[in-house]
Amino acid sequence: QEVLPPYRLQLQAMLTALDGFPGGLRYTRPDGGLFIWLTLPEGIDAVAMLQSALDNNVAYIPGTHFYPDGAHGNTMRLNFSASAPEQIEQGMASLLEVIKQRV
Q: How many CA atoms lie within 13 A of 49 on its CB side?
């Protein structure tokens, strides 16, 4: 199932921003849904990084919350459905700065 407008613009804004992130990151390119799954390099703790992200006006859900054993601490779920493309661009720029402090 294809991502439908207006979410297509929001998804594209997030994917474009992620394309500019440093190497070592992996992320999904969804055909449907409202989220992108981002995997950071091993050893980066998305839970520990969350407060810094919030302090920089960007939020995500740490991926570890989606695993019963609490694994995958270097992952996060990003929602693109609740923000305009311009907000996504700003939020992703902030997230990039937070990630750069840890890689």
A: 26
Question: Per-residue DSSP letters for 16-43?
Answer: HHHHTSPTT-EE---SSSSEEEEEPPTT
Report pTM: 0.89
DSSP-derived secondary structure for the chain = -PPPTTHHHHHHHHHHHHHTSPTT-EE---SSSSEEEEEPPTT--HHHHHHHHHHTT---EEGGGGSTT---TTEEEEE-TTS-HHHHHHHHHHHHHHHHTT-
d(CA 58, CA 93): 9
For the stretch 40-80, pLDDT in tens is 999 999 999 999 999 999 999 999 999 998 889 999 999 99
